[in-house]
Amino acid sequence: MKHVHYTEVELEIPKEQGIKDIMIRWLISKKDGAENFAMRLFEIQPEGYTPLHQHDWEHEIFILEGNGAVRDKTSEKSFKQGDVFFISSMEWHQFANTSNKMLKIICLIPYKK
Amino acid sequence: MKHVHYTEVELEIPKEQGIKDIMIRWLISKKDGAENFAMRLFEIQPEGYTPLHQHDWEHEIFILEGNGAVRDKTSEKSFKQGDVFFISSMEWHQFANTSNKMLKIICLIPYKK
User: Fold this and answer.
1) Which of A42, A73, A80, B111 has its Cβ near the most Cβ atoms within 10 Å?
2) Residue A31 belongs to a domain with what CATH number?
3) DSSP letter at B93?
4) Would residue A1 count as lying in a domain?
5) Best to test chain A binding among B9, B32, B62 (most A CBs inside 10 Å)
6) Chain B interface includes A6 (CB < 8 A)
């Protein structure tokens, strides 16, 4: 059984293009023996954002702290703490911090078989 | 894209034996098109608990609110808000609310292929 506080997990700079002021913690991953899906936590500064992109895997997301906006290519919709998202494969999406406080997002992805 | 606040998702009584004062919300499931894993939220009253059990799938867990204790057959360890657990397949586990406030746990499980 792995048991840690999320703040004990290393804070890393993601490698993706098109991001701003984001750090990531890989809370549960293959390193822990997770073979089916991974749990990450994104910490997004005010005015920071994830890339506007699409990919052939889904996201399961829980907004842990803060407020922001989710965007696709044509629209924007605000979100708040406690909101839940299911982003299907190939859906365009971007998560942005539109507030003046830190935004923290739990985001899970599958490991492809 | 599914987007809801977690409190908008139906609060159900789990069917498992050996539980006490627990309700569950299936935040993301096959109903939403999730084919690889499901996100559930457990709301556990003071003195409530999940079953002491084992099974051949893993859990990925984030403690959203409250305090409690995780148990196996021989030991007990306390946990708090922001703690993360990876419970491997076949590991014995039980989550109990040992406080006087509600305990809220995000718990993800794989869909078996």
Assistant:
1) A42
2) 2.60.120.10
3) B
4) no
5) B62
6) yes
